[in-house]
Design a protein that fits this description.
- This protein is mainly beta.
- The protein is 10% helix and 46% strand.
- It has an 8-stranded antiparallel β-sheet with strand order 6-7-8-9-17-13-12-11.
């Protein structure tokens, strides 16, 4: 699997940077809140259509006949085997609700282990004037701790239908709290759909099995499985352990937010305005070992430190500020992959993946 940063590299430089005993019936409703820039259609606790209310092209961002809002979980008891659950397989037994104004929907799924309840998954969407908020909560329903090894969400965006120019291209940067994704039409016409994790949520891994693109909040089980197949994933794969039901720590909650942006600069402004980090790097993420790179970080959060994966072989120098940007210079003496970790805000962190190559003259001589 290609490193997540490599997948994003080009775009990054361009922008310079089982349920209730009586399941609820399926509920479908289209919603466009007053003065909202979002036009969404909910069905059975998920988004089945997402468009911009002021897009003359009526670009559809969710793939036809697919659902945005499903989650995948892998969990186990202490010393036990991993068990898997996917909300898409529980659609017919979910409990659904939708607000009277059609602006909010929720879904509740009971995940069972044999005949007994194991986990309860709650998923909600709220269509607001300038954003769509997506929340997820996972609660332990057993009397003993449960380890959540994987917690991932599927993103079935309209990137494979290829129907005229209405399909969209994905750009992704999976890098802890600083992660974000955006989708745009192939002709670059606005708007772009930007997805960011909310405070307390990070992304650390992704996969794309059977054309099902998923991003992971926790990925310990998936990461271990990938390593057995030769994947060299360079970010930490984490898990979370939920306490027994009814005790402190028996649930975990996460969230994402969607916004519209008009162009690449708009994506950067969206990141900055909503607690993310706008990153600019020159000359690029691949640099000869005898040269330096400079990068600028713009965020409303306080930047605490920038640490190196190999401190003894990395020189990081602060260059002060330029407006809202914090400026840094870095030089690597260790060839190959070199990761920097940015610590900022309230225990947030993100990664910058550089690659240090041999000096230009050496490369030319080797290939001359």
């Amino acid at each position: 699997m290609m490193n997540s940063f490599s997948r994003f590299h080009f775009a990054f430089l361009i922008i310079a940077l089982a349920a209730s005993s009586v399941p609820s019936p399926a509920i479908a409703l289209e919603s466009a809140p007053n003065n909202s820039r979002f036009k969404v259609k909910f069905d059975s606790g998920a988004i089945v259509s997402l468009q911009s209310a002021d897009d003359s092209f009526h670009t559809e961002f969710v793939m036809p006949n697919r659902r945005l809002g499903d989650a995948f979980i892998r969990y186990r008891k202490k010393g036990g085997e991993w068990k898997s659950a996917d909300s898409s397989a529980l659609k017919d037994s979910g409990v659904y609700s939708i607000s009277d104004d059609g602006e909010k929907c929720s879904a509740t799924y009971q995940i069972t282990n044999g005949d007994s309840a194991a986990l309860e998954l709650n998923i909600g969407f709220s269509a607001e004037k300038s954003s769509v908020i997506w929340t997820l909560k996972l609660e332990n329903k057993t009397g003993e701790p449960l380890e959540i090894g994987d917690f991932a969400v599927s993103l079935p965006m309209n990137s494979a239908s290829r129907r005229g120019s209405s399909w969209v291209l994905k750009h992704s940067f999976i890098s802890g709290d600083g992660s974000f994704l955006f989708w745009m039409r192939p002709d670059s016409a606005r708007p772009y759909l930007v997805m960011m994790p909310r405070a307390g949520t990070h992304l650390e891994y992704w996969d794309a099995r059977n054309r099902n693109y998923r991003v992971f909040i926790h990925s310990a089980a998936a990461g271990e499985e990938a390593k057995t197949h030769g994947t060299n994933w360079r970010q930490p794969n984490t898990s979370v352990t939920l306490s027994p039901s009814g005790t402190s720590g028996d649930a975990c909650a996460y969230g994402f937010q969607f916004h519209w942006a008009n162009d690449y600069d708009g994506v950067r402004e969206t990141l900055f305005d909503n607690g993310g980090i706008d990153v600019q790097v020159v000359p690029g993420m691949t640099i000869p070992s005898d040269l330096t790179a400079r990068f600028a970080l713009r965020t409303k959060q306080k930047i605490h430190s920038v640490g190196a994966e190999f401190p003894e072989a990395t020189e990081i120098k602060s260059l002060g500020t330029n407006g809202d940007y914090r400026l840094f210079q870095v030089k690597f003496s260790r060839l190959g992959e070199n990761r920097l970790e940015v610590h900022y805000g309230d225990k947030r962190s993100m990664f910058l993946e550089f690659f240090s190559a041999e000096p230009i003259e050496t490369l030319i001589k080797k290939r001359g």
